[in-house]
Automatic annotation (TrEMBL):
Keywords: Membrane, Transmembrane, Transmembrane helix, Transport. One of its GO terms (cellular component) is membrane. InterPro entries: Na/ntran_symport, SNS_sf, YocR/YhdH-like. It comes from the Archaea. The chain crosses the membrane at residues 12-31, 43-64, 84-114, 134-157, 169-196, 216-236, 248-270, 301-319, 340-360, 366-387, 408-429. This is Sodium-dependent transporter. It is a multi-pass membrane protein. The lineage of its organism: Archaea, Methanobacteriati, Methanobacteriota, Stenosarchaea group, Halobacteria. PANTHER family: TRANSPORTER (PTHR42948). It is found in: Membrane. CDD domains: SLC6sbd_Tyt1-Like. It comes from Halarchaeum grantii.
């Protein structure tokens, strides 16, 4: 077998993983999930989900990937007893389904870049969203987005990916801080903050069955967990990196970007359509931000820069979504990388025509409420109960965490993560039908 590529540096891996994590999930999905699920009540559950379940789950994917040095499916054959490759296959399938609708939302971003140039959204941000978010325009933009994604993936792992993220993350942070600062001056900003930040615990209690699956799904989605993506990325990782250290950096950075997006969107909503107004549905963040650019001095230019940066964030995520199924097929069938990336991308494009005609929510629910919890359940059971001990000990390699911490993590993965995910799944699937 040919020598496997590795990241040229630790930073290269972190950039790629952060590139995968930080994306539309932070700026598009997080504000709208928060607005649709009671504001701060959702935020509290979401943060618990990220740190108590997401962080240890990222460590599961990293240990599987680095220990096996295999793609997200074969990894399960390498480390365990019996055939658990189905666990990886669920994740790869989730990546593929997600790519189909992610690319549609990525297409919206492209339409907002065009709208920044023409000024088309400056007058009526809501109407503009309506005109680009579904139908032929949406299909066309989705085609462009997926074509660019295919182009990047077809040319190899390390090259394309390592570069783009380096300037994207600082740029996104600066832009969001600037927008949040401006939004703080809007009339009504205070009411926006209190909706976003001061939790009403009775809302958590009464909406538990909706909030928990939404928050867990958002946590997995935003951290790129349950897709096999982090398994695939970690498989190219050298042995002397600290997995807990890298994971902490990724989780914290990703959380900061999402929180900042909320700090921009919620005061804007309060000042425009109403405190925590989620009637814009999947368009909530786009409409709020584009509306803000319509009022800002030099808003058209700021909007252009913002949506270009968001496009980079979306692309560094979508390439990881295409990478997971591509590297699996390349490894297992020995086919040429370029052909595989084009083939899978083309099928995802066709599948994406449905969300481009208004079914983003359906795809979103399928992934959040069903596929991701199921995938995470199996990878947790795998590492917790099935994989050999070397796989578990991979956690501590290259890091200063001791035997004790590894044991705590192992029991957390054995018991807490599966229970949390089963509860989520139960609530999520039942809410699907009601
Ligand atoms: N984490 C990405 C986001 O928040 C979405 C994603 C999931 C990307 C899985 C790749 C893999 O936008
Ligand atoms: Na994210």
């Amino acid at each position: 077998m040919a020598q496997r590529e590795t990241w040229t540096s630790r930073a290269g891996f972190i950039f790629a993983a952060v590139g995968s994590a930080v994306g539309l999930g932070n700026i598009w999905s997080f504000p709208f999930q928060t607005a649709s699920n009671g504001g701060a009540a959702f935020l509290v559950v979401y943060l618990l989900a990220v740190f108590l379940i997401g962080f240890p789950t990222m460590l599961i994917e990293f240990t599987i990937g680095r220990r096996s040095k295999q793609n997200a499916v074969s990894a399960f054959a390498e480390l365990g007893y019996g055939d658990w490759t189905f666990a990886g296959a669920i994740g790869v399938f989730a990546s593929f389904i997600t790519l189909a609708f992610y690319s549609v939302v990525g297409g919206w971003v492209i339409s907002y870049i065009v709208g920044s140039v023409t000024g088309a959204y400056l007058g009526d941000a809501g109407a503009y969203f309506g005109s680009v978010s579904s139908g032929l325009v949406a299909v066309g933009a989705h085609a462009v987005f997926i074509a660019v994604t295919i182009g990047i993936v077809a040319f190899g792992v390390a090259d394309g990916i390592e570069r783009a993220t380096k300037f994207m993350i600082p740029a996104i942070l600066v832009l969001l801080v600037g927008l949040a600062a401006w939004a703080s001056t809007l009339p009504g900003a205070g009411a926006g903050y209190s909706y976003y930040l001061s939790p009403d615990f009775s809302v958590i209690a009464s909406n538990f069955a909706d909030i928990v699956p939404a928050a867990m799904g958002q946590a997995f989605f935003t951290l790129s967990l349950g897709f096999g993506v982090m398994i695939a990325y970690a498989s190219y990782l050298g042995r002397d990196d600290s997995l807990p250290g890298d994971s902490a950096i990724i989780v914290v950075l990703n959380t900061i970007v999402a929180l900042l997006a909320g700090f921009a969107v919620f005061p804007i909503l309060a000042a425009t359509s109403g405190v925590g107004d989620a009637s814009g549905g999947a368009g909530t963040a786009f409409i709020a931000l584009a509306g803000a650019f319509g009022q800002l001095p030099a808003g058209q230019i700021i909007g252009l820069v913002f949506f270009v940066v968001l496009l980079f964030a979306a692309l560094s995520s979508s390439i990881s979504l295409l990478e997971a199924p591509t590297s699996y097929v390349v490894d297992s069938q020995g086919m040429e990388r370029r052909t595989v990336a084009i083939g899978i991308g083309a099928v995802a494009f066709v599948l994406g025509i449905a969300p481009a005609y208004g079914y983003v929510g359906l795809f979103n629910d399928l992934v959040f409420n069903v596929l991701l919890p199921v995938a995470v359940l199996f990878i947790a059971l795998f590492v917790g109960w099935v994989a050999n001990r070397e796989a578990v000990d991979e956690l501590g390699r290259g890091s200063s965490i001791g035997e004790g911490a590894t044991t705590i993590w192992l029991w957390w993965v054995r018991i807490v993560v599966p229970i949390a995910v089963i509860v989520t799944l139960y609530l999520g699937v039942t809410s699907f039908y009601t």
